[in-house]
Amino acid sequence: MTWEKLKLILSIIYDLFFLLINIPWEIFKKFNPNKCKYKTGEQHEKDINEIAKTIANITKKNPNIEIVLDRQLGEGHSSRSTEYKKGKFRINISSLNSIIEINSKDKYVDVESLVTFEELCNETLKYNLLPCVIPEFKSITLGGAIQGIAIESSSFIHGTFDKTVLHATLNNWKWSNNQFE
């Protein structure tokens, strides 16, 4: 058997292996009722104000309290344990999981932080659009990509994902035009 034939056989085995591994994920996606959600800008503002009110109330009682996201092990892509969250106030942002607007004319999306790139791409493809930088992991959230930089193969053209963000609300800071306001 020649080296070329062996490479071809190994390539086919490799592809079949990953196809078989991916089948449970594809079945889960097909029957998962949690499709990408849409909400109005008004509902988004209401959700943001509710989270801000919670933060204001807790920091009024204890100005030195440390606040962390209330996400459990396995809900993110962090390689560290959740030990650093012990004794800190956990803020729930699970309501921030929707697309607010896809503007195909001006080519931008108004989206909340817990929308995954898979959800975003599935929706933007309906308008023949995609983000400039797309992480390889489908389940990376947009908020996670901003916080974790998200450098990908298209980054040599567009920079890291955060460089493609026009505006973001981060707790009590605003990010606009690649700077904090």
TrEMBL record:
GO terms for biological process: steroid metabolic process. It catalyses: 5alpha-cholest-8-en-3beta-ol + NADP(+) = zymosterol + NADPH + H(+); lanosterol + NADPH + H(+) = 24,25-dihydrolanosterol + NADP(+). One of its GO terms (molecular function) is flavin adenine dinucleotide binding. Residues 73-170 form the FAD linked oxidase N-terminal domain. Signal peptide: none annotated. Keywords: Oxidoreductase. It comes from the Eukaryota. This is FAD linked oxidase N-terminal domain-containing protein. It holds the Pfam family FAD_binding_4. InterPro entries: Diminuto-like, FAD-bd_PCMH-like_sf, FAD-bd_PCMH_sub1, FAD-bd_PCMH_sub2, Oxid_FAD_bind_N. One of its GO terms (cellular component) is cytoplasm.
